[in-house]
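thread: overnight batch results

M.L. [08:02]
morning all. the overnight job finished for the chain we discussed friday. pasting input first so we're all looking at the same thing
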Amino acid sequence: MRVTNVASTRACAVCERTLLMGERSASFAPSEGADLVEVCPLCQELAIEAGWIKEGAPTTPTLDGGRHRRRKRNLVEFLGLTRASDEGALAHQEPILRRLSDGEVALLEAADLFNGSAYRRTVGGIAKSLGEPHASIVPLSGTSGELAVTVAWELSWYQYRVSPDSAQPVRLERRGHELDELEDGFKDWNAQVEDEGRLVPEIARI
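M.L. [08:03]
and the structure it wrote out:
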């Protein structure tokens, strides 16, 4: 039987990159009891950090809390309360000299989760071709605590759903080509995209 390219097309569930013929992927369940999805070799560590369960692993994985420790450390760097390395830090900004509101803390946490995901590399790669994009972080209605991260250029846009308490905290929600397709609430550009796709919310320092 001849196997066609269409029949063998597979994609990574994390970065959504089409897997190459013969590329060795691994199967993960985003949560206990969920259907298995394929994850490429580059994203398997991210899937494990997000709490995804690898096929054949114990049904109750042991989490070391690394993601939560890293989130706390990065929030401290966002607030300018400690000295950080030049790579991926905001050391060039002045520290925040006031108490943040709950909403501002939520924006920082959403940016931190996005920056720790594979989508940061996707956005960084597109920005090298299309230039600096507009960006927004918008809390969604309801009590789930979810936020929408929108990154937009003149020719295309991507919207991600950030769910801090989910096993998959960041996922691609939808994408399009025309800015008119976006609701006005998502076009309140309150964030910047820096080097390598790093998302930084615009928060008054004082």
